[in-house]
Design goal:
four-stranded mixed sheet, 11 helices, 17 strands, alpha/beta, elongated, 5 domains, Ubiquitin-like (UB roll)
Length: 432
């Protein structure tokens, strides 16, 4: 009995003790860190941009804390530039286990274009310096993707607005005048004005009438763009001065103002005619004629004011003369040797006769069995001989004027050129 009471007291005593000293719960474990120190940063797949440029845009650097959230943000920044086809990354614990080694993999946009500016109230150097400051990826060439163009338009507009110019800007791919290379052009968004008038000042001894006529024929109604307009000056106005011996003519200043009477612009061109040059010497190279034959063909006089309209006419005569002896593809270039001290110029005609074309076959259409042999006997070029492009029409004129046929109504000649074999087949048609 006594032992039973002792056991009961012990149980009671244990229960009381437990109630008075409860167990303390364990404190929760701290959350695992999601960011660790970036110990190494690497960029792979880049060719145009340096790793430094790419990481500057990404906004991450070695030594800072980073994790998936930061790396996703960096990837998003790179993709938003419009300079990459694809951006990805991967990271792993560093060798010492204290941080991350991170690799960004990029695929750059393959096609880049030079940038240029036009009709903006800032210099090229100013705009390039500003864009280089704004864009870590700025270079001589940039992608023409929509994000890139939009960002550059915004930055240029910001620069101009700071200089009190708020005109809308646009960027687009285009080819500069006289070039086939595409460039990314930034200019005012408004349409270029049309040319309404062209005036000249300081024209010297050249009559104004031919200048006005020449420029009006090529320029009026054309959208104004200075490089294009200068090409028009070179093609239409410069030859007029060179026909008067003024080989060094320049057009140093072009002023533009709104036209008063129509929708467009009036352009005033300042001319600096320069001195008058005389013809010193004439030479011919590249064709098998004697010097006297070429001189007789050219009819150019030395020690007189050079006239390049006459020089061009000589080129036309050279081509005609070469075609008469079978060189149907003949061309020529004019080399100038200008003596600015003595105000003289020597000219060398560089002639390329091209291949020799010979007569292939001659077909006669519209003749009977009696007259065809007679006409064939009259024909003067044998197959295989150099072909004269003027001969078929000349031959038919002789036939008509000679009264060979009493009832001949009309004639015509057709030629078929074989550029590979360098032969010419002729068909003569007789309508009786």
């Amino acid at each position: 009995m006594r032992s039973t009471r002792v056991a009961a007291l012990l149980v009671l005593s244990f229960g009381v003790g437990s109630a008075q000293t409860p167990k303390r719960p364990k404190p929760p474990l701290p959350p695992a860190p999601t960011s660790y120190t970036i110990e190494a940063l690497t960029v792979e797949g880049n060719h145009v941009y340096t790793a430094e440029q790419i990481l500057a845009v990404a906004g991450v650097r070695a030594g800072q804390l980073g994790g998936k959230t930061e790396f996703e943000g960096a990837r998003g920044k790179l993709e938003a530039t419009g300079a990459f086809d694809n951006v990805s990354y991967h990271f792993a614990p560093s060798h010492d286990g204290e941080g991350y080694d991170v690799v960004f993999e990029v695929a750059e946009i393959g096609q880049l274009y030079p940038i240029r500016f036009e009709d903006l109230p800032a210099s090229d150097d100013q705009l390039r310096a500003w864009l280089k400051q704004k864009d870590p990826l700025f270079g001589e060439k940039i992608p023409a993707t929509k994000p890139v163009v939009a960002r550059y338009v915004a930055w240029i507009s910001e620069f101009l607005a700071a200089h009190d110019d708020h005109e809308a800007i646009a960027g687009k791919l285009t080819s500069p005048v006289g070039s086939e290379e595409l460039t990314l052009l930034f200019r005012p968004a408004k349409t270029r004005p049309s040319i309404a008038h062209v005036l000249f000042t300081g024209i010297g001894d050249v009559p104004s009438g031919p200048l006005q006529t020449a420029m009006y024929a090529v320029a009026i109604g054309v959208l104004y763009e200075e490089p294009r307009f200068r090409l028009l000056l070179d093609s239409a106005a410069r030859p007029i001065y060179e026909a008067h011996g003024m080989l060094r003519v320049t057009f140093p200043k072009i002023d533009i103002a709104p036209a008063k009477d129509v929708d467009g612009v009036s352009i005033t061109v300042q001319v600096a005619p320069g001195p008058v040059y005389k013809l010193d010497r004439v030479a011919f190279v590249g064709a098998d004629y004697s010097r006297s034959e070429w001189n007789n063909l050219a009819k150019l006089k030395t020690n007189q004011t050079v006239n390049f309209d006459e020089v061009k006419a000589v080129q036309d005569r050279i081509r005609v003369s070469q075609r008469r002896v079978g060189h149907l593809d003949a061309t020529s270039q004019v080399k100038r040797d200008v003596n600015d001290a003595g105000h003289t110029v020597s000219i060398e005609f560089q002639i390329d006769p091209g291949p020799l074309y010979t007569l292939g076959k001659v077909d006669l259409v519209g003749l009977d069995l009696e007259t065809e042999p007679e006409i064939r006997r009259m024909w003067g070029i044998a197959p295989g001989k150099p072909f004269n492009v003027e001969y078929p029409d000349h031959f038919l004129s002789r036939v008509k004027e000679g009264g060979v046929f009493d009832d001949l109504k009309s004639t015509r000649a057709e030629t078929k050129i074989n550029a590979k074999a360098h032969t010419v087949d002729v068909t003569l048609y007789f309508n009786k």
